[in-house]
Structures are given as C-alpha cells and as structure tokens.
Design brief:
Aspartate Aminotransferase, domain 1; 7-stranded mixed beta sheet; 4-stranded antiparallel beta sheet; 14 helices; 15 strands; binds pyridoxal-5'-phosphate
C-alpha cells in the first residue's frame, strides 16, 4: 500500500491506529460510563513530593537536565535498588532516567534489536511492547499466560517458553508484576526464564513498573537478583504507579554500563532528557516516601478485594491478582464466550468500561473470555461500577 498525503503513516505502524484505551475512554465519555478501563489512579501522590516539584520550578530548575538524568535521582534510584533488593548499580554509568517506562522499553528495544531479531514476550502483553518491536523491525514471539485453574493465577508453560526461543532470538521481554493478568512471577518461574536466557545468551528486558504494588504475602523478585542475570538484564521501572503520578512520566533503567550506553545512544535522539523538577521530586519520593507507598499498597489490596467481591456477585469468574492495578474477569459463567463483545457492549448496557484482554494478545484465544477491570479508583467509584453491573446482571436474568 502506497503512502499518500492523506494516508502518510509508514506501513510498519499501520496496525497501531487508535489504542483500545483511547477508544474505550471516548466511549466512557459518550455514554457517561464509569471508567475502569485505563490504569490510572484518581487520587494524587504524596503531598511533600508534589511540593518538591513546585519548589524546584520556583527555584529555577527549568533548563535542560543532563541527558542521563539528574544526579540526585540517579543516586536515589541506586540507593533504593540496593536497599530493597541488594542490587548495586553505579549511578553514573549504570542508571538512565527516561520519559516513563514506555520510553525506556522503546529505547531499549531500538538499541538492542536489529531488523528481524526475535523478541520473546509474555502474552497478553502491555500494548506499547508490540509497537516498540514494530518500530525496531523486530519480530514478536509470544508465550501465553493462562489461568492454572478457574479463578487461579496466570502462568506460562516452560515448554512454550523453550519452544518460542530460536537462533534468531535476541531479547526476552518480561513484565512482572504483569499487566494485565496481575501475576507476579515466582522465583521458580524466574529461574526457568533465567536458565533459558543464560543457555541461549539472551538479554532480558524486564518491566517492573508495578514492583511495589504486590498483595498479601507476595513479594516482587527482580530477575536481576538471580545468579548470572544482572549482567544480561535491563531492569525498567517508573514513578507513575509507585507514587500515583502517572502523568509525570519519570522512568528509568538499571543495567550494566554497556547496555545503558546503548540505550542512551537511542534515547538521546528520542527525547534527550526529561523534566528536571519532576526528577527531583521523584528522588525525594524514593528516599522519603516509601511509607506512603506501603499505605497505597494496603489500600489497593482492600480495593482489589472490594472490586473482586463485587464482580463475583455479578456472576463473573474473578481471578484475584497477586499485584498491579487490574483484575481479570472471565465472562463464561454469564453464558458468554467473548470478552471483547461483552466489553464493547458494557458501556451502553451497564454504564461501565473494562478492557477486553484479547486486545493484548496476538492469539485472541488466549485472552478471549477475559475482561480487565482497574481497581486503582476511589471506593465510591468502584461501588458505583459494581452497582451498575449488578443492576445489569439483574436485567439479564
Ligand atoms: C506494564 C506497564 N509498563 C509500562 C507502563 C507505562 O509506564 P510509564 O507511564 O512510566 O511510561 C504501564 C502503564 O500502564 C504498564 O502497565
């Protein structure tokens, strides 16, 4: 297909027109539906951290920060990673601040993959991964995550993972805790992945933006802590979810110096650098606001339970997540088979928005019966959504 003035987009990006999030948010606005689609909180981050950003703007920190990020933020990231996981990174050569995790992932893939290289990733996957791979001309090799039992956690089959790796594989792109299934990979699962990465000499890029938002007794384990993995892992995280400031788009990578240099080489021509005041405020967050984050974690766990109970009362089969902002609900107990048509009808018929899980999959069968609902919302918003769903279920009976 040729490019014209009215169809100017390059071929490799044509599959990525309007995202499902924009589509469903527009539908929420049109119909007045409660939006449990997009994963952003409706309350703000810690006050002192917000004040830090304001002070930094008033204090004149308004010109280009250094490309790799402000030193105080790089030092705070290093201190945090060392204190929490025992992982030591040199703030000067092994940490790079990015415009959210999104830029970190795109820059990493563009830096590490030649055209035709294969990237193995867990399916369903966060939507920016596929687009980043297409930009790089890389080929995705999805490995499905499936529920281990009705209502159970989602997991991968190690044989599927082994089968997805070929001589062309360059990167394993992980995401744990995982959006949209809520799975936090266990040490055993991570060890399986690590063994394969080492055997095939692969680089692991791991998206850990939900690292602090785990529930019950689940703890996040960075794959870089496993033997032989630090030297082959680019760890990605971000302030957005940890501190409820998703609009700030402050992210970072921690990786060996050669990998940071490679990612920096690309990143400098995407954005060069990111807002100094926000970086300084996030440094404050990492050093001083982890108690606030712990309170957020507990409150999210209660909200997870609140929404899970509500969705179960509606008659959906609920997969309680181990982490993240999201619940997977299986529509089959309602006598339906297809989560996508359910999700598209829901704003009109029930006044609630969720995201069909199939849109995060290459193989629609993997996500077919599921809808993702976000619970990072205020109690009254969750209660309103559940009330509407119960009324809808009542009308269906
Ligand atoms: C798994 C995952 N990675 C990355 C992001 C984006 O992070 P950021 O806003 O820091 O770019 C999100 C946001 O929803 C996400 O769920």
């Amino acid at each position: 297909m040729g490019r014209t003035l009215t169809e100017p987009l390059v071929e490799r990006m044509r599959a990525y027109g309007t995202t499902i999030f924009a589509e469903m948010t527009a539908l929420a606005q049109q119909t007045g539906a409660v939006n449990l689609g997009q994963g952003f909180p409706d309350t703000d981050g810690p006050n002192a951290m917000l004040e830090q950003a304001v002070d930094a703007i008033r204090g004149g920190l308004n010109q280009y920060p250094p490309g790799p990020g402000l030193p105080p933020l790089r030092q705070a990231i290093a201190a945090h990673r060392k204190a929490r996981y025992g992982l030591a990174y040199d703030p000067d050569s092994e940490i790079l601040v990015t415009v959210g995790a999104t830029e970190a992932i795109s820059a990493a893939i563009l830096a590490l993959c030649e055209t035709g290289d294969e990237v193995v990733l867990l399916e369903p996957y966060y939507d920016s991964y596929a687009a980043a791979l297409s930009l790089a001309g890389a080929v995705r090799r999805p490995v499905p995550l499936r529920p281990v039992a009705a209502g159970g956690r989602f997991a991968f089959d190690p044989d599927d993972l082994r089968a997805a790796v070929t001589p062309r594989t360059r990167v394993l792109l992980l995401n744990s805790p995982h959006n949209p299934t809520g799975t936090a990979l266990t040490v055993d699962e991570l060890q399986t992945i690590a063994d394969i990465a080492i055997e095939h000499d692969l680089i692991v890029v791991t998206d850990e933006v939900y690292e602090h938002l785990t529930f019950d007794d689940v703890v996040h384990v960075p794959i870089a802590t496993l033997p032989g993995m630090r030297e082959r892992t680019v760890s990605v995280s971000s302030a957005g979810k940890t501190f409820s400031v998703t609009g700030w788009k402050v992210g970072w990578i921690c990786a060996p110096a050669a990998m940071v240099r490679a990612v920096m080489t690309v990143k400098q021509f995407l954005t060069f650098t990111h807002s100094g005041p926000m970086q300084l405020a996030v440094a404050h967050g990492l050093l001083r606001e982890m108690e606030w984050v712990e309170a957020l974690r507990s409150s999210l766990q209660l909200r997870r339970d609140r929404l899970a109970d509500g969705l179960a009362a509606v008659g959906l089969d609920v997969h309680k997540p181990e982490a993240t902002y999201f619940i997977q609900a299986d529509v089959r107990p309602l006598g339906l088979t297809d989560g996508e048509s359910f999700a598209r009808m829901l704003p009109h018929d029930a006044g609630v928005v969720g995201i069909p899980t199939a849109v995060f999959c290459d193989d629609p069968d993997v996500g077919r019966p599921f809808v993702r609902f976000a619970f990072c919302k205020r109690d009254d918003v969750l209660d309103e959504a559940v009330g509407r769903l119960l009324a809808y279920a009542g009308r269906r009976r």
